C-alpha cells in the first residue's frame, strides 16, 4: 500500500474587491468592516487491494480515528456496474461491519446507474438526499460512494448539499477516477445539457483506491483513464511522459504493476497541483483542464457515448496539434504525443471533432468553457513536453490547421 498526505491551505480574501469598495465608500462617507479567515483541509488518499476483505482493516482504522460520542452511521451508494461485476460486494460490505459497535451500517446499500447518465438524472440526486433524511444521516455520519467518476461526482454533490456537508468517502473503481477525479475537491451534476453546471468544491474526508476493482474493467474503461495521466504528465512532468511513452504498450496490454505506478504518480501530480495553487478555482486558470474544452463539448455532442477519457485523448491531440501549428511546440514533440496516444489505443480523430470552419459544432465548446470559467477564457497549451502555457484566445484558422494536421497522421 502506498500512502500520500495532502494538506490544503485555502485562504479566503477579497483584497481587490474590498479596495474597490473602500474607494467607493470613502466617496459616500460610509464605513466597512473586513473579514478574513483561513480554512485548513486535509485528507489522505490510500492505495490498497481488497479493501473489504476481513483481514484488511484500513477502512475501519480510518473510521475509528474520528471519535464521536454517538454511534456513527455509514451509508453506501454503489455504481450499478460495479455491483454487477462484483456480485459479492453487498455481502462483503455487510460482513465487514457486522461486528462493529461504534459504526452502524445503514441497512440499505443503494445501487445507482453508472456512467455519465448518473449525472444527467435529477431523480438520482434527490433519491440520495431523500435517503439522508429517511435514515437520519447527520454531519458526523458518512456517505460512501463506490464507483466511477460520474457516480462519485453525483454522490459527492448530494453529500455536500445535505446538511451543508456530510462526511464523504470516495472509493473509485476506474482508472480515470483513481488517478484523477476522485482525488480532487470537485463534485457536480450536469444541467441544461451542460457538463458540471451544478456543483460544489467540497473535499472528501478520505479516498481509498482499491486496485482490485480495476481488474473487471473493459479494455475501453481501462484505457480511458490513462488519458488523464498523459495530460498531467504533459503539463507538469516530462520524465513521467517519457515513462508513459516507454510503457504505452504494456499499459495497453493491461499490465497491473505498470498501472499501479501510473495511478499513484498521476494522483500525486494532481494532488500537488490542487494543494499548491487555486484548489477552489477562485481565479480563471485551470491548468488541469488541458485538452478539456473540446472534450467536454464532444461528450455532449455525442450524447455521452464517447467516454470522458476518450474525449480527453482527442482534446489532447487537438491542443497539442494547435500548440505545434501556433509555433509553441516542435512538430517532433507533437508527433510524439500523438504516437503515445495511438500506442495506448486511443483515436486521435472523430467526425464531431473535425474543424472545417467557424460553424463546426465543437467550436461552441470554447464559449461554454469561457462561461464556465466566469467570463475569461483560459486554455492551457504546451510550450514543451512537461511545460504548459496559458492563452486566452484560440484562432479558428489555426484550429482548422491543427485539425487538418491530425488528419494527415
Q: What does the main sheet amount to?
A: 8 strands, mixed
Q: Termini separation (Å)? A: 41 Å
CA-based gyration radius: 22 Å
CATH A-level architecture of the largest domain = Up-down Bundle
The SSE string, one letter per element, is EHEHEHHEEHHEHEHEEEHHHHHHHHEEH
Overall 3D shape: globular
The CATH class of the largest domain is identified as Mainly Alpha
Q: Beta-strand level of the residues, as a percent range?
A: 15-25%
Task: Describe the overall structure.
- It is a single chain.
- It contains 17 helices and 12 strands.
- Helix 13 (292-301) packs across helix 14 and helix 14 (308-325) crosses helix 17 (396-407).
- The chain folds into 2 domains: 42-215, Rossmann fold, CATH 3.40.50; 218-407, Dehydroquinate synthase-like - alpha domain (Dehydroquinate synthase-like, alpha domain).
- The longest helix is centred in the middle third of the chain and has 21 residues, at 256-276.
- Strands 1, 2, 3, 4, 5, 6, 7 and 10 form an 8-stranded mixed β-sheet that branches.
- The radius of gyration is 22 Å and the shape is globular.
- Mean pLDDT is 89; it is low at 1-14.
- With 409 residues, it is of the alpha/beta class.
What's the structural blueprint in terms of helices and strands?
Elements: E1 3-12, H1 15-27, E2 37-48, H2 58-65, E3 72-79, H3 80-85, H4 89-96, E4 103-105, E5 110-112, H5 117-120, H6 122-134, E6 142-147, H7 149-161, E7 167-172, H8 175-179, E8 186-191, E9 194-201, E10 206-210, H9 219-224, H10 226-236, H11 238-252, H12 256-276, H13 292-301, H14 308-325, H15 331-343, H16 364-372, E11 379-384, E12 387-391, H17 396-407
Parallel strand pairs: 2-10, 3-4, 3-5, 3-6, 6-7, 7-10
Antiparallel strand pairs: 1-2, 8-9, 11-12
Amino acid at each position: 500500500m502506498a500512502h500520500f498526505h495532502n494538506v490544503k491551505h485555502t485562504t479566503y480574501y477579497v483584497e481587490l474587491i474590498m479596495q474597490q469598495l473602500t474607494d467607493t465608500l470613502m466617496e459616500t462617507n460610509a464605513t466597512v468592516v473586513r473579514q478574513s479567515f483561513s480554512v485548513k483541509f486535509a485528507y489522505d488518499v490510500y492505495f490498497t487491494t481488497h479493501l473489504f476483505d476481513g483481514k484488511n482493516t484500513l477502512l475501519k482504522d480510518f473510521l475509528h480515528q474520528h471519535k464521536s460520542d454517538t454511534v456513527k452511521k455509514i451509508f453506501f451508494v454503489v455504481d450499478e456496474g460495479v455491483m454487477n461485476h462484483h456480485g459479492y460486494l453487498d455481502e462483503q460490505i455487510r460482513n465487514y461491519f457486522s461486528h462493529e459497535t461504534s459504526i452502524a451500517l445503514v441497512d440499505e446499500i443503494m445501487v445507482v446507474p453508472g456512467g455519465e447518465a448518473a449525472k444527467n438524472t435529477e431523480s438520482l440526486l434527490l433519491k440520495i438526499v431523500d435517503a439522508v433524511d429517511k435514515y437520519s444521516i447527520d454531519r458526523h455520519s458518512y456517505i460512501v460512494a463506490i464507483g466511477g467518476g460520474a457516480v462519485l461526482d453525483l454522490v459527492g454533490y448530494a453529500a455536500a448539499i445535505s446538511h451543508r456537508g456530510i462526511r464523504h468517502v470516495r472509493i473509485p473503481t476506474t482508472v480515470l477516477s483513481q488517478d484523477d477525479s476522485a482525488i480532487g475537491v470537485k463534485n457536480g451534476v450536469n444541467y441544461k445539457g451542460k457538463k458540471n453546471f451544478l456543483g460544489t468544491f467540497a473535499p472528501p474526508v478520505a479516498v481509498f483506491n482499491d486496485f482490485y476493482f480495476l481488474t473487471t474493467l473493459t479494455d475501453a474503461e481501462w484505457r480511458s483513464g490513462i488519458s488523464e495521466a498523459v495530460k498531467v504528465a504533459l503539463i507538469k512532468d516530462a520524465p513521467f511522459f517519457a515513462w508513459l511513452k516507454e510503457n504505452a504498450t504494456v499499459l495497453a496490454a493491461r499490465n497491473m504493476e505498470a498501472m499501479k505506478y501510473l495511478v499513484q504518480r498521476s494522483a500525486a501530480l494532481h494532488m500537488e497541483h490542487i494543494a499548491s495553487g487555486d484548489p477552489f478555482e477562485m481565479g480563471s486558470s485551470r491548468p488541469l483542464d488541458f485538452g478539456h474544452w473540446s472534450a467536454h463539448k464532444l461528450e455532449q455532442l455525442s450524447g455521452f457515448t464517447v467516454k470522458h477519457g476518450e474525449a480527453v485523448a482527442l482534446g489532447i491531440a487537438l491542443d497539442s496539434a494547435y500548440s505545434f501549428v501556433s509555433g509553441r511546440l516542435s512538430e517532433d514533440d507533437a508527433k510524439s504525443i500523438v504516437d503515445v496516444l495511438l500506442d495506448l489505443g486511443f483515436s486521435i480523430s472523430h467526425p464531431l471533432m473535425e474543424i472545417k470552419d467557424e460553424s463546426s459544432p465543437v467550436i461552441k465548446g470554447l464559449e461554454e468553457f469561457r462561461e464556465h470559467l466566469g467570463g475569461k477564457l483560459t486554455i492551457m497549451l504546451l510550450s514543451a513536453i512537461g511545460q504548459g502555457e496559458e492563452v486566452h484566445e484560440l484562432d479558428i484558422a489555426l484550429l482548422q490547421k491543427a485539425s487538418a494536421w491530425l488528419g494527415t497522421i
